[in-house]
From TrEMBL:
GO CC field: membrane
Pfam families from the UniProt entry: Rhomboid, UBA
GO molecular function: serine-type endopeptidase activity
Residue span, Peptidase S54 rhomboid domain: 48-183
Organism encoding this protein: Erinaceus europaeus
The keyword Membrane belongs to this UniProt entry's keyword annotation: yes
Lineage summary: Eukaryota, Metazoa, Chordata, Craniata, Vertebrata
Record's protein name: Rhomboid domain-containing protein 3 isoform X2
Keywords, comma-separated and alphabetical: Membrane, Transmembrane, Transmembrane helix
Subcellular location: Membrane
Amino acid sequence: MSARDSPGLLFPALPLASSGLMLLLSSLWLVGAGPSLALAPELLPDPWQAHRLLTHALGHTALPGLLLSLLLLPALGWRQEHRLGTLRFLHASALLALATGLLAALLAGLRVLGTAGGCGYVPVHLAMLAGQSGRPPRAPGALPAWLRPWLLLALTPLLSSEPPFLQLLCGLLAGLAYAAGAFRWLELSEQRLQALQAGGLCRALAGCWPLRLLPAPSAVSELPVTHPVGARPPSPGPLLLPAPPSLWLHGKGSAPGPPGLGAVPSPPSREGSSEVGLPLWAALDEQILQEAIQASLLEESAQGPGSPLWLPKSSVSSLRLQQLERMGFPTEQAVVALAATGRVEGAVSLLVGGQVGTEALVADGRGSVHPNGPGPP
C-alpha cells in the first residue's frame, strides 16, 4: 500500500525510525531492561558489557524519564527525520549516542561524580538539537536554534532525575562537536546513502504504512537540473512567473494528466521544497521547465486516447533519470514520472503507486525512440 497521497488512509504514514524508537523504548521499559542497558563505567572493561556505551540511550528505570523521552520523539524526532531522512537520522542518532557514552565513561574514569549508572534517550535529543544549532529560526519570533538545547538542558533535571545532569551535558557537548564537524569523517557518504536507499528493503519500506522510510532530501536537492536549450534567461529576473491556472490544480492536490499517467501532482510550494536554497535563476528555470512539460503533456493528451505520448529524454535531468534506473524502474516510465514531478521523490511515489502507464514513447533526442517507433513528428 502506498504511504503517500492515499485517500483511503485515516492518517498519513509516520516516520519509521523515530516512531519505531518510541515502541522500542516503551517495550524495554515494560520488560525491565533498563538496568542491564544503563551506562555502568565499572563494567565497561568487560568486553561483553561494551554495548552499554550505545544502549544506555534505550534503557529507562524511571517513568518520568521515559515519558519525557517519548514526548520529545514526536516533538523533535519526527521533524528531524523529515529533514535528514530515515537513514541519516538513524546514523546520526547512533553516532551521537555512542559519543555521549564515551564522554560519560571518560568523565567517570576521571572520578567525576554524577556520571555512573545513567540511562535515557534525552541526551541524544540534546545532541541532535545541538547538532543543528547553527540553523536560523524558521519563523520570526521563534527561539534561536542555539538556545533550544541549553533550554532543554536546564529544564530536564526539573522534570526527571534520569539521566544524571553530567550525562545530559555530555550529550550537549557531543552535539556541539557534531555541529563543528568533528564527526564528519564518520558520516554516510552520498554514494553509500544512495546505494542503501536503492536496496530492495528500503524501497519496500518507503511505500509502507503506517510507518514509512523517508528518503534523504539532501540527496535530491544536490542533483543538478538539466535545462532545455534556450530556457535559461540571459539575466536573473526579479519576478517568478506563476504557472497558468489551466495547467495546475484543477482539484485539491492534483491535476488531470495524459492517458496512462494518472493524476499529476501539483507543484510543491517554495517554502516546503528541498530546493529553497537554489539561486533565483535556477528556481525560475525549473518553474519554466515544469510549465513547458505540463503544457506538452496536456497538449498530447488532448489529441485523443489513441495517440501515443512523445517525451524527449532531454526534458528531464539525466542524473535523476540514472538514479531511478539504478533503482530498477523502466526508463520510459521513469522519464514520464520525472517529467510530471521534476523530483526523484515525487517520481518514486508515482512509480511505486503504479500511477505511470506504458503508453508514452520516449525519444533520446537523436531520432530514435523507446519503445520501437518512427520517432516524434
